[in-house]
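Weekly puzzle thread! Below is a chain. First person to post its structure in token form gets bragging rights.
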Amino acid sequence: MTRYIIISIISGILFALMDGFINGNPFAAKLFEIYKPIARSSLNIPAGMIIDLLYGFAMAGIFLSFITACPGRPALQREQATRS
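Winning reply:
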């Protein structure tokens, strides 16, 4: 369970970094100018961070629920990986 929480937080932080990189670079600003009439003028950074963390938890949860169906390892090793 602690591994799930740690991985979820790390992936949420990575989502936030990618979000900031995609929306904050000058090249993206040129591309997003077309949306300027309908886009918000201010950003709510804490809400965005919380949403990115929730995406991290959702992604890790979905992965854990489907890991037993993933090919590549014998079933016994997959079951042991999900227990630890």
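Puzzle host: Confirmed. Bonus trivia for everyone else. The radius of gyration is 18 Å.
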